[in-house]
Amino acid sequence: MAKRNLPPIPDLRLVPVSDVLPHEEHDAQRSAPLVKRIKESNVWLNPPVVAPLDLQLEENQSFALLDGANRYHCVRELGYPHILVQVVNYKSEFIQLETWNHVLSDVHADEILPKIYKLRGIHPEHSDTLTAQSALARREAIAYVRVLPDWVLMLIADTQDIRERNASLRELVNTYKSVARLDRITGDEPEQVKKVHPGASMVIIFPRYEPAEILVAARDRIHLPPGISRHIIQGRALRLNYPLQELADAETDLQIKNEKLQKWVHQRFATRNVRFYEESMFIYDD
Fold it and tell me: What is the set of domains in the chain, with CATH numbers?
């Protein structure tokens, strides 16, 4: 059996908050309590993951935020000048881009569907699942809705312009994000959805994206709604417990702060405080 390549040691850096560009909106329901938890903990736990927008540049680099929009928003809310991130190569074999679907619970479909029918630039059409999946794959549809258990509504957009389509997606998510319990799921089969989310009434299924679309959304600030893109990152750095004051420090030069960070990282490895798990896991205290 061929030996599998292992991901590189995480590239951890402190970078100016202004140099990080999110590709999606933050989730206000998650970010509001997160600000409080971060301040109370006094440590930076899980660094957001970013990718350089231009691999040719070495200075004055901007980064697309792949994962961690809520933590990024918290740092901006706290007014910190720098953010500790994990920098990855978006073309690496260890980065995989998938899509989350949205499961809506604790709300009846009749409360959401009239709002969807009124959305500008979107034409809802009743469909079967296979037709909706095909239209989504061809990007004729921007999403489709599975009203549990047995019928499908396909959402056809007026335009192929990415700015307008992303705006339509944000309006779609706005129809339900404040009135329903929203969970993320990778599939949409009714039996599996009901097994995990017994109170579910609807599932919103989104298209698969390419990395270039994520980078353009970040660069041009044409954000996706929160919780659609899903980056699977092998070799993810978690539970750093790095002192939060290092992010808040606006007096020390950034280069000096990064030198201090690298010394801290090397010390953690030297004292065997870093552990790499190659196998997949379910973590129950996250």
Answer: 11-97+231-270 (3.90.1530.10), 101-205 (no CATH)
